[in-house]
Amino acid sequence: MLKKLSLVFVLFLTACGWHFKNSELFPEELRTLSFESADQYSDMSRALRNEMLLTNINIVPKAANVANLRLNATESSSRVASVFKQAREAEKILSLTVKATVTVPNKGSYPIETSIHRTFFDDSRAALAKSEEKESIMRQMYEQASRQLLIKIAGLQKELANTK
Known about the structure:
The chain is of the alpha/beta class and 164 residues long. Helices cover 37% and strands 34% of the residues.
């Protein structure tokens, strides 16, 4: 009975078009942003732009009265975490650090930063498959970093309220 009731509830929510309102988390000043990056076509820039569109943030050209999100730096690195008996690298820790700045007109600039870490098993005998897996992991890390940056932007609401 409970399974049928939950199925009916899920179908009802799906049929009526109900969905979470992610953009309500953002302060009014940050629901429309201009976006700047040194490389507009980098993987991080594309992931951040896509995430902004998914959360219903309007991206507009740079203007004096619109808040600005500037992607300052994206740094990726890898460290050896473990080795095989033959002294070859076995496991790596992939790290991604993203630094950005949100500038709100008449309220100031707010630097934000996020770091993502993942482990990657690197077997040199399957080099082609492992390079594709590493690229897939990096794409996922860019998406996760984008989500974390937007969560930190939403968290600026308290600071923006104090500067009025």
